[in-house]
């Protein structure tokens, strides 16, 4: 059994890593979906209340609340396969919760790229932060995510992939990691 969590700043390549997993028929549990479901449970539109509900969940049930709610979904996904990818980890507290739940079976992958590289890719993706995030710049998004504990989470990673080369090279790295395991990408640690 392998539960592989991904962490990384905006535009680092987390969605691309999740896409590689899906291509391999590895289920991806997205923590954002947990928040969207909580919005619907409260009769709120996820499009406008996502941030507010994420904050409320943490205030009501503690900083690991979203990780906690992801656990049954991850366990259910593990009934169908040996490996699950968890996308959307934001903090060290969440990493600790997953380590507590899955022990050695939990692996943390940090995806890293310099801010200027991420900025360029996000512009190309058409999700320019200045438009999509209500005027918030990538610098501000980075700062906000680091404020949640993203930096501490990244520091806890079992391995790091530097996503500074081509998309194809990144896909290959992630595919190797998912299919062959840590030893195959040991050089990246
Ligand atoms: N190595 C690469 N070369 C070229 N483009 C890339 C590379 N890696 C990712 N991209 C592109 O950069 C953009 C950002 O990547 P992605 O959406 O995976 O980031 P993310 O970490 O999920 O970001 P966010 O947290 O903002 O959702 C995407 O358009 C993706 O296709």
CATH class: Alpha Beta
Strand content: 5-15%
Bound molecules: adenosine-5'-triphosphate
The ordered H/E elements are EHEHHHEHEHHHHEH
List the topology elements.
Layout: E1 2-7, H1 14-23, E2 28-30, H2 31-41, H3 46-61, H4 65-80, E3 83-87, H5 92-102, E4 106-112, H6 115-125, H7 129-132, H8 138-148, H9 150-155, E5 159-162, H10 167-180
Parallel strand pairs: 1-3, 1-4, 2-3, 4-5
Helix pairs in contact: 1-10, 2-3, 4-5
This protein binds adenosine-5'-triphosphate.
Descriptive notes:
This protein is of the alpha/beta class. The protein contains ten helices and five strands, in the order βαβαααβαβααααβα. Strands 2-3-1-4-5 form a five-stranded parallel β-sheet, with helices on both faces. The longest helix has 16 residues, at 46-61. Adenosine-5'-triphosphate is lined by residues 8, 10-16, 121-122, 125, 163, 165-167, 170.
